[in-house]
Each structure stands twice: as structure tokens, then as C-alpha cells.
Design goal:
about 475 residues, alpha/beta, Aldehyde Dehydrogenase, Chain A, domain 1, Aldehyde Dehydrogenase, Chain A, domain 2, 2 domains, seven-stranded mixed sheet, six-stranded mixed sheet, 15 helices, 25 strands, about 20% strand, globular
Length: about 475
């Protein structure tokens, strides 16, 4: 049965006469009929958030925390439905859906807990003043969330900003309007979240430019949270900067997994297989280069090929054992196909996989990849990974850093000092020793360097991003003014 999804604004469901189709990427069947917001609808949602802001910001921090806990509980009650939707709407494997839906409530719990943390500090004053640095919410925050982990990344964008006292206008990806947007509106509505605190506007790709511009440039918007491609993130950050608005943008990656000669082989294989092929490689932190020390290269490659070849490809809504589902759309398939064909034409060898059927791409391992190939230079965002040998730690670091991106990375070694030395030399916002580059927790500083983003999500770092710092003093010692005055 096709779902009917409408805009959620000022605590009301708003029927839009314009509609667009939300399809199942496995077979292109219609999954939902979705409201296509026009400019007045977006402006109304922004106004609703602006009107709700003073009361929400003034609400006792304990009450805001209670609302967030209620959202976590309601999400748990809907876990089965949302997990099913993540398979049908976003093309995800059942296990990925269970992980994602299990993670989201923890984000809301962590955000609720942030309301019990200090919001400032008392500083010394040579004039014996009471000198305070404190934080307060900025106002209306736009959250633009992606399609790959729509529920998780939406929750990360909205929960901490709401906890701090901000109100939200959320625009989910047009590929996942339910799991990245309307599901959260339904939850807010169900728990009685005050009207206007969370507003959700959905729009089609055709209408994206006008809606996106309004969500950034409207003077009532004070901050922007965006997760998505580097190309779009650059535009959003530039527009936000032009209007002197705070922005946190988490963008693409070209993450390396460095496997040293003293690594635990079983751990290394698991990190490579999971990191490269989880959700068809459609993860910002996906392993996109596996770097293996030359002395163990052949041993590792043979075992990695065997593991990758055992991953089942198919429609995840028809069989829970289908670990590799479809890519989200034909544009993503075309990008992966172009990189694969370019690599083979320039001399790369396909060790396993390489076949593309519709939107389904087999887990693919390449060797012989060189720096002039697209698969070496550009983010792939698909289940294709090169395995590249290195002879020294310095060479591994150089290869890993040879990219404009700097999101995450992984290092496998039994020598913790060696691992820390390599991690310190990598130009990434995050690094994980003896684990995959794919890592996240609700309370950590999540974000990248270089072209992988600006700002940090998670824990107190989210609070810092979507609050402003104020300096307040109260004179107690009678600071003197110059006699001339």
C-alpha cells in the first residue's frame, strides 16, 4: 500500500497539491506519494519555528530533556516499521536497518543528557567582577539530511540542536522523505511536542533549488546543519558564510584502511569487508582504499576476495540474507560504472565482482590501481574498492593523505604505539586503530577535515555548533573609570 506523506508545519499536517514519487530503489516501484513543498509552505514552516523558539528556549531544561526521551521511546515503539521502511525506501540490508533504528534512540538519549551538562564557565577577573561565559540557543536551525543513513543522520542533526533550545526546519532527502523526515514528524506529533519546534518540509528534485535557497537565506534561519556531498556542501557553506550564519557541514570521504604487517589478519579482513561493503559502500566513512603492507599482501588479498564474494546481492525486502542491496538511484550507478570502466581501461584488474545489473553492483575488489584512475581520485560511494600495497608506514600515510578528503581512517596493527604514530600523521578528522573507518557514537566529535566538512556533530560539540557564546559580567569591586570621565 502506497503511503501518503504530507508536510508537517506548526504542529499541523499540510496537504500540498503538488506531489512527487518516492520509489523503492530495488525495483523502481512506487513506495510513497509525497508532498512537494512550494516557497510559501517553506516560509510558513520557518515562521512557525521562529514563533515557537522563545517558549521552547525558555522551557526548563528538564522538560526539553523529557520531550527528547519521549521521542526516543516512541521511535523504539516504531522500530519494526521504520526498519522495514529503510529496506524499501532506502535499499538497505535488514541488519543495517536494525542497527540504524537501534542507534537513533541513543542519539535522543544523549541529547537529553546534554541538558544536564554545564552551559558555561566562570572566569577570573582582575577587577573582581563576576565574569561568565555562557551559551544560549541561536534560534531556527535548518537541518538538511541525506539518504544513505536517513534516520540516524536526521536524528543527529535535530536532537542536540533541539536539546539546546533551538527550533528546527527539517528537509529530508527527496530519496528518503519518510525515514529521513516524516517519520520524525509523526513521532513529534504523537508525543505532543510543542507546535513549531520541529517542522518537516519535503520537496522533489525539481523544486530543490528554490527550497534549499530559502532554507539557507531566509533571515529567520540562524544556523544550518547539512550532511551530504562535498559539491553541495561547498555551496551551502558559502551561502551561509555570505549571510554570516553558523553552518556545520559533514561531507564526503575517500577513507583509507591501513593494514600493517603485524595486524591481526582476522580483524583486518573483517574491518575491510565491513568498511568497504556495508550498505553497498554508500557510507561517508566507507573504506575506499585498502592499503596492505607488501609482505602480507597476497595472503590478505586471497582471503579478502573470498569474503567479498560470499556477500549475497539482491532486493533486501525479499530476503534478509541479501546484504548488498541496490544503489539508491541510476545516477549513483552511473558514477560507479564510470569509475570501474575507467580503472579497467587503464590497467586495473578485477579480482572479484565487477558485474552491474540494474541498480545492483557486486562487491568489487580491484588491484593495479594507479593515481591517474578515477577510482583512486574521487569518492566512489559504491561497493568498489582498490587494494594497494605499501612498503613502509610513511608510504601508507602518503597514499592515505593523497586526496582532497579527510573524513575518517583506520589502522590495523598489534603495536599500539605504531598505530598512534600513523593516526597522528593522517589528515583526517577521525581515525580508528584496530577498527574500520566506519565508526560513530552519539556523544563523540564526528566530522572531517579538508574537503570533508566544517564543524562537528555529537555531544557537546553539537551544542557548541548550534549555540552562541556570550560574555556577561557583574561588577562587584567598583572598577574605576579614568578621572577625565
Amino acid at each position: 500500500m502506497t503511503r501518503k506523506l504530507d508536510i508537517y508545519s506548526a504542529g499541523e499536517w499540510v496537504r500540498s497539491p503538488r506531489r512527487f514519487n518516492d520509489v523503492n530503489p530495488s525495483d523502481n516501484s512506487l513506495w510513497a506519494d509525497v508532498g512537494d513543498a512550494d516557497l510559501p509552505a517553506v516560509q510558513n514552516a520557518i515562521s512557525a519555528a521562529h514563533s515557537a523558539f522563545p517558549a521552547w528556549a525558555d522551557l526548563a531544561y528538564t522538560e526539553r530533556a523529557h520531550y527528547l526521551i519521549a521521542m526516543a521511546d516512541e521511535f523504539k515503539r516504531r522500530q519494526a516499521d521504520i526498519c522495514e521502511a529503510l529496506q524499501a525506501e532506502a535499499g538497505g540490508w535488514f541488519g543495517k536497518g536494525m542497527f540504524e533504528t537501534g542507534y537513533v534512540p541513543e542519539v535522543f538519549h544523549a541529547a537529553a543528557a546534554s541538558n544536564y551538562a554545564p552551559i558555561g564557565e566562570v572566569m577570573p577577573s582582575e577587577h573582581k567582577k563576576l565574569s561568565i561565559a555562557m551559551r544560549r540557543p541561536i534560534g531556527v536551525v535548518t537541518v538538511i539530511s541525506p539518504w544513505n543513513f536517513p534516520a540516524l543522520l536526521t536524528s543527529r542533526g535535530i536532537a542536540f540542536a533541539m536539546a539546546a533550545g533551538n527550533t528546527i526546519v527539517l528537509k529530508p532527502s527527496e530519496e528518503t522523505p519518510f525515514t529521513g523526515g516524516i517519520a520524525f514528524a509523526e513521532i513529534a506529533d504523537a508525543i505532543g511536542l510543542p507546535a513549531g519546534v520541529l517542522n518537516v518540509v519535503t520537496c522533489s528534485r525539481d523544486n530543490l533549488q528554490a527550497v534549499g535557497n530559502e532554507l539557507i537565506e531566509n533571515p529567520l534561519i540562524k544556523g544550518i546543519s547539512f550532511t551530504g556531498s562535498t559539491a553541495v556542501g561547498r555551496q551551502i557553506a558559502a551561502r551561509a558564510g555570505a549571510h554570516l550564519k553558523k553552518a556545520c557541514v559533514e561531507l564526503g570521504g575517500k577513507d583509507a584502511l591501513i593494514i600493517c604487517d603485524d595486524a591481526d589478519m582476522e580483524r583486518a579482513l573483517g574491518a575491510a569487508n565491513f568498511g568497504s561493503f556495508m550498505h553497498q559502500g554508500q557510507v561517508c566513512m566507507s573504506v575506499e582504499k585498502v592499503l596492505v603492507q607488501d609482505s602480507i599482501f597476497d595472503q590478505f588479498l586471497a582471503a579478502f576476495v573470498q569474503r567479498a564474494g560470499a556477500l549475497k546481492v539482491g532486493d533486501p525486502t525479499k530476503d534478509k540474507s541479501h546484504v548488498i542491496g541496490p544503489l539508491i538511484n541510476d545516477k549513483q550507478v552511473a558514477q560507479v560504472r564510470m569509475q570501474l570502466e575507467d580503472a579497467v581501461a587503464k590497467g586495473a584488474k578485477v579480482e572479484v565482482g565487477g558485474n552491474i545489473s540494474g541498480r545492483f553492483v557486486e562487491p568489487t575488489i580491484l588491484t593495479g590501481v594507479t593515481t591517474d584512475m578515477l577510482v583512486y581520485q574521487n569518492e566512489t560511494f559504491g561497493p568498489v574498492v582498490p587494494v594497494i600495497p605499501f612498503s613502509s608506514d610513511e608510504q601508507a600515510v602518503a597514499i592515505a593523505n593523497d586526496t582532497e578528503y579527510g573524513l575518517s581512517s583506520g589502522v590495523l596493527t598489534r603495536n599500539e604505539q605504531r598505530g598512534l604514530a600513523i593516526a597522528s600523521a593522517l589528515e583526517t578528522g577521525m581515525c580508528h586503530i584496530n577498527c574500520s573507518s566506519v565508526n560513530d557514537e552519539p556523544h563523540v566529535p564526528f566530522g572531517g577535515s579538508k574537503s570533508s566538512g566544517v564543524g562537528r556533530h555529537g555531544g557537546r560539540w553539537s551544542t557548541e555548533t548550534f549555540t552562541e557564546t556570550r560574555w556577561i559580567t557583574m561588577d562587584r569591586g567598583g572598577r574605576p573609570y579614568p578621572p577625565v570621565f
